[in-house]
Amino acid sequence: MNNKAKIRESFLKTRLFLSKDYQTNSSKIIERKINHYIQRYNLKAFAIFISKIDEPFTHHIIVDALKEGIEVYLPRINGEKIEFRKIKNIQSDIVKNELFNIFEPKIECELLENIKEISTIFVPLVAFDKHLNRVGSGKGYYDRWFNENQYKGFKVGICQSSQLSNQIIDVEPHDVALNSIITEKQIYVPLESNDDEDSNFDITYAVFNDETIIN
Hints:
About 25% of the residues lie in helices and about 25% in strands. By secondary structure, the protein is α/β, with parallel strands linked by helices. It has one domain (about 5-215): NagB/RpiA/CoA transferase-like (Rossmann fold). The strands form 4 sheets. A 5-stranded mixed β-sheet has the order 7-10-11-12-13. A 4-stranded mixed β-sheet has the order 1-2-3-6.
């Protein structure tokens, strides 16, 4: 049995004890970093999620992107899978999924059919490790979508620095690691493997904390 369930349970409990001020302040910094990412890579379209109350706030990111004419796709649960649909207005184009207590695009919104239209998907997570493996909600929606669609774009996690697990997450064949993770303190990206047997380095990610982004 893998350790995902225990890690998920532990970090979900941890999030309950985070102060409102910490969540608010960290969300503001994460928001600025993501907006910087969108501008730096000149994204014309991307996918993101509508955050729950204990996740970094994504509402302003979506609103700002729509104002700039950027196409925004949101995940919608469809049975055992997710699909992405484009919204034009965050007020009128979303509906609450009472079963999962999340907001998602209405069924009338345009379905994403050409996967190549979006070069970046911002992904929610409960915990992550130094290899940029993630623990999600446990339903496997994102991993299933990445695999079935053979998605080659960037997969960027959004979370707080407190969600970094010191315990390495047990991965399964269907699990998909992220390309980077944005937190309020650092931006994590994987390092290329080093084949030098004499190397004393065992870190598997690089950490960036660009002051021009967060100030």
